[in-house]
Amino acid sequence: MRATFRSFLGGFQRGHRWTRLLGAAAAVSLVEACTVGPDYLRPPTNVAADFKEQKVTDRKGWKGATPLDLQDRGAWWAVYKDPTLSDLAGQVELSNQTVAASLAAYDMAKDVIREGQAGFFPTVTNSYSATGSHQGSALSNAGRPVTSVAFSPAANATWDIDVWGRIRRTVESDAAAAQVSAADLQNAKLSAQAALATAYFELRATDALKKLYERTASAYRRTLEIVKNQMTNGTASRADVDTAETQLLAVEAQAINTGINRAQYEHAIAVLVGKPPAGLTIPITSRFPTMVPAVPAGMPSRLLERRPDIAAAERTLQQYNALIGVAVASFYPDLNLTAVFGFTGGTPLPISAASEMWSVVGTATQPIFDGGLRSAQLEAAKAAYRQNVANYRQTVLTAFQQVEDELAALRILAQEAKKDQEAIKAAREAVEVYLNQYKAGTVAFTTVVTAQASQLTAEESLLAVQESQLVASVALVEALGGGWNADQLPDLKALAAVPTITPPL
């Protein structure tokens, strides 16, 4: 069968009359073809010259932002200089299941393009039929029974000629959808990496909080010893001892309680790197980053190119813009060529040129009444485009809001941290003074307890602020796109180009 099809396919290549007609029609279609519908133009958006927070910090004497392009576009988390974080964040792209699902969605989107590109070419099928017939002597002109067999190898071709660009617009829409999927993949990576960095810093802050409680418990033990000595000397009551013991036990309980949050953060990190919670253990460390790295915001106009979710929303616009062209093309005639070429003979092989047969049929079909169906489809396509224009602009506005939010958070948290540091210094001095006065018997023990509680509160507050600063810096990096740029999207023209097809023969 395969050899037979090769033999009469060779007839196509030698230039049979019907193939010349088909080729001429194809040439005319390529020359005369036009692509109806609007060509895509990115809609304008309202972009400020500077971020509001940049102006505020400049007025307050803060260091101005520098372009994000100076940062490493790959491992944005490297600015934190934490080897454990870098190791974990690097695993997200390889093992995170949400990222894996987005990658599969992108692969599927590319396959949809290939499905659409198939419409650029004719569909060719081959067949081989054998027909036997018998006539009795009463029916035969020869007066004797006649038995005959006919063999008919044939090729059939149908081609929907894309004169008005319906297929081209469909492929353009599919290619833009693939770009959307590629941007979604990058956004999934960035979101997972930012979630991991946030959980990691929260875990480290929990470790630091436990260390704080342990240091405080050590200080409270020394205080308890002082109170016991005072009671032995007759200058303190049993109530003071009970109060000191209660204070110590309470802070020890708080130290134990931190294990709940730490376990949950560790479990979350394990899932983000694609591991079961039992498969990951992050050692406790006393190192907690207190210096937040500077994250340059750059210019607001660059934000449109740096965020994958903005890129996805913008690429969705071209996807739906192309679908308007598909709807417009439905108003024009649908041109179709159908061709058949084959042989008929009494033997399977060889094929004789004398038994050649062929036919070419061209048809043009256009609905003349559809009850307003095509008009409704066109208006629906235009409405879908306008909807996505609004979605795109809202995505841009939300991006600006998120950047401004995190810039403001970092500025205000830095001011708060400075005040907390001053409060801790004052609280430590107060504890030392009141403890000496208590030893001298000039103040009650409740004064010492109150001062120590104030010191612990101030230290907890500073640690919470430092944690919030790190989390806000991660959120700012995510809001700025993590160093990603829209030029990393796959090329639309390359995706939508007419592919070169080699027949599998």
Report on the architecture of this protein.
- This protein is of the alpha+beta class and 505 residues long.
- It has one domain: Outer membrane efflux proteins (OEP).
- It is 61% helix and 10% strand.
- The protein has a 4-stranded antiparallel sheet with strand order 1-2-3-4, with helices on one face.
- It starts with a helix and ends in a 9-residue tail after the last helix.
Rg (CA only): 38 Å
Q: How many strands in all?
A: 4
Strand content: 5-15%
Helix content: 55-70%
Oligomeric assembly:
single chain
In CATH, what is the class? Answer: Mainly Alpha
Rounded mean pLDDT is 85
Tally of individual helices: 12
CATH topology: Outer membrane efflux proteins (OEP)
Across the major sheet, the strand order is: 1-2-3-4
- Overall shape: it is elongated
Uncertain runs with pLDDT below 50, 5 residues or more?
A: 1-16, 27-32, 59-73
Q: What CATH architecture would you give?
A: Up-down Bundle
Terminus-to-terminus distance: 12 Å
Order of helices and strands: HHHHHEEHHHHEEHHH
Specify the biggest β-sheet.
Answer: 4 strands, antiparallel
In total, the number of domains comes to 1
SS class: alpha+beta
CATH homologous superfamily (4th level) name: Outer membrane efflux proteins (OEP)
